[in-house]
Structures
1.
Amino acid sequence: MVKQKTMALLEQLKLLVNLSRIDGDMAEREKTYITNIGKANGFPESSVATLFYTTHEVIIPDNLSPDQKFSYLFSLVQLMKIDERLYKEEIKFCSSVAAKLGYSEQAMFELMLNVKTVVDDTERKTLQQLTEKYLDKG
C-alpha cells in the first residue's frame, strides 16, 4: 500500500514536471511548488530535483482513489496558474490528464475558474466536492 502511494506520488510529480516544461521555461516558482509537494510527502529534495531534467512518459496509475485523482488534477491546475499565464498547450495537457483520470471536461473549467495559487483546506475540500460530480465513478 505504501509503495503504491509512493509510486502514485512519483507519477504525479512527473506530470507536474511535464506541465512546467510545456512553455519551454521552468520558472523557479514552479520548481519550488513541485519540490514542496515532494517534500511534504516524504521525497527528499534531491530526488525531486532529478525529475526536472527530462520530460517523462505520462502514466496515470491504476486504482487511484478519488482523493488521489483530485490531488493530481488540483495540483496540475494550481501549477498551471502559478505564473499567472495560461497557455493553450498547458490547458490541453491538463485536460488530457483530467480525461485519463476519469473527469469530464467541465471539471477542468470549474477548477480553472476557482483554483488560486494559495488555497486553505476548507477551500480545497469545497473544490473537491464541486468537481466530484464530474468524475466517472465506473
2.
Amino acid sequence: MRTIAPLQIPPDTTIVVPGSKSHTNRALICAALAPGTSGLEGALFADDTIAMVGALLSLGISIWADPEGRTITVMNPTGEIPSGPADLDVRMSGTTSRFLLPLLCLGEGEYRMDGSSQLRSRPIKELVTKLRQLGAEIDGDALPLTVHGGSMRGGSVVVQGSVSSQYLSGLLMAAPRTPEGLYVRVGGELVSKPYVDLTIKTMHDFGVEVEAHPEYREFSVAPAAYKPSTVSIEPDASAASYFFAAAAITGGRVRIDGLGHSTTQGDLRFVEILQRMGAEVKMTATSTEVRGTGTLTGLNVDMRNISDTAQTLAVVATFANSPTEITGIGFIRKKETDRIAAVVTELTRRGIRAAETADGMIIYPGPAQPGTVTTYEDHRMAMSFALLGLVHPGIAVSDPACVGKTFPEFFEVLDTLRPEPMGK
C-alpha cells in the first residue's frame, strides 16, 4: 500500500502529464495499416500502450520505441497485416483487445489472442458477433480467441452503443482495408461519443475519412488506403483530471499545458463540471488552469460521455456542501472492476455516505476516516482515491503499482503538488 500525506499548503504549479492512452493506441493501429513509416511524438509509455506495441511486434510489424523521448516509429512497408500464425498477449488492455481483433480479421492465417484473467472477464462477445456478421471467422466468444484471417469482407452491421464505444472504434479503423468498406448503424444511445470523435480524427490524420451521420446514428467508411503520417499525441485528459481535482478540493492552482480548446479529448470537459461546482477555470487553445475557491457545491451530472473521470468526481463530491448525483454511467460496471460498486464501497468504508443507483451513484459530503482504500486492480480507483489523502490524514491506497496501466509516474507527479523543501 502507499500512504498519501496531506498537503501542508495548497498547490500552485504547472503539472506535466503523460500522453493520451486513447490517442496513442488509435495512432498505433492506423500506423500499422499505413504502408511505409509513421511516427508518434509524445506517446504514452504505460502497460496499455506497451500491450499494443507488443502485440503489433508479435504480428511482425517493425516498431522502434524511445521511452525517454516519448516517440514511437512504426514501419510496415505494405500496410498489410503479416500472415499468421501468431500468438498475441494483450495483457490487461481493453483498448488493445478491441482495436486489435478487427485488425487481425484483415490478415491471412491463424491468430490467437489472449490476455490477463481480469481482461478475460471483460465483455467482447458483441464485437466478435459483429465481426462474424461481416464475414470473419473467429473461434470463441471471450478471450482467448482464435481468428482465422482472410474472410472478412465488410458490409453493414448494427452495433449497440450502450456497452462500449471501443467496439465501434475498432470496426471503423479496420473498415477502410475491407473489400466492401463498412456501414454501421448504432442501436440505442452511444456512450463515450468523444472517443469516437478521437477515432475519426486519428483516421483523418492518416488519410482516411469517416462519414458520420447526424446524432452519431450511422457511420460509413469506403475502402481506402491509409497514408503514413507523423502525429503529435496530446497529454492525457483523463490523467489530467486528478490534478485539476486536486486544485479544486485544496483551494490551490494547477495548470496543464497542451490541453485546451483545441483538444480532441472529451475528458477535458471534466473542468466544466468543476467550474459548475464553484472552481475557477481558465482555458486557452493550448492550456487549462483550475483554481479552487474554497467552496464546492454538489450537482446532478450526466457523465456518459466522460465516464473515465466519474471516479475522480466522486471523490471531489465528498468536499462539496451538498450531495452530488452522477448519472448515465451504468456501463462502467463492466470496466476493470464494477466501478460504481467499488467507489460506493470504498467511500462507505471511509465513513462517507454514498449510494448506488441504476445508472450511477449519489455521493454525500463528509470527511474521510483514516484507512486503506482497496483498488480492485483498477488504476482509476488508485488515482482518484489518492486525492482523499491530500486533505485527510491516514489515507492509503492498496496495490499502488496498478497505476502502471496508464500512468506509471502518477505518484511521483502527485508529489510535485508539494512545494520543494528549502534549499532545493
3.
Amino acid sequence: MRKTAMAVFLILLAMEPLFSSVFKGQREYMKKCKVCHGGGAKMAKSKTSQEWIKIFKNKGAVLVKAHENSKRIYNYFKSENFSKKSSHLRDFFVKYAYDSGNVPACSD
C-alpha cells in the first residue's frame, strides 16, 4: 500500500508542470494581454488549437508582427520575459482553444 501511494504521489508530482504551464500562461495573459483583448476564455476560443500552435511558431513571429504598431507591447514580445513565457501562453491558448471543449475556471 505504501509503495502504491508513493508511486501515485510521484506520478502526480511529475505531471504538475503540465498543469502549471497552462496556469502560468493564463496568469501571463491576464497581466499583459487582458487590457486590450479582454477575457482569456474569449480570446482563446477565437482560434483552433492548430491555429494557436502556428501563431506561436518561430518565437511568436505572427504575434510580434500583429503588435508592431504598439511600441510598449512590441518591446514585450522582443523581451527575454516573453521568450521565457511564450510556451506557457501557447499552452494556455491551445488548452482553451475553440476546438478543445475546455473552459477556464476563472477567465477574469
4.
Amino acid sequence: MLDDLDRRLLRHWQADATLSPAELAATVGVTPAKVSRRIARLQDTGVIEGIGAVIDWSALGYTVEVSLRITLDKTQAGSFDGFITAARAVPEVTEIQTFLGSVDVRLNIIARDVAHYQQIYRERILTLPHISDIEALMQIARIKDGEALPL
C-alpha cells in the first residue's frame, strides 16, 4: 500500500506538519509537484485524516486531566448509543474510547483545577445516562505523548 517515498514523506511530515510541499520535496529528494500528488493521494485514501493544531491545554489554564473508566447499564436497549451521544455534548470531554470487557467506555476530561473538575463531574458526568459504575484516574504526569508511527 505504501511505498518507500510515502513512508519518507509521512515520517518527515509527522515530525513537522508545518513543512510545505517544497520543503518536504527538498528533504526527500523529489519535486514539489510529486509531493503534492502523493499527499493528495494519501488524503484521498484516508491515510492522512487531517492536519490540525496541537493545543497545550495547560497553557490555556486547564491543569487537571482525569480519565474516567465507565461501565454502562446495558439492560436497556440503546443505552450505549444514548450514553455516547450525551458524552459527546460535554465540552470538557476531549476523548471517548470504547472497549470490550468490564469497562465499556473511557472518557478523558480536562478541567481548570480540581474544583472545576468536581463541578464537571457532578453537573455533567453524573447526569449522563445509563452509567452503572465509574472509576476515576487523575493524571499526574504525561510520560509519552504522540501519535507518530514508526514508518
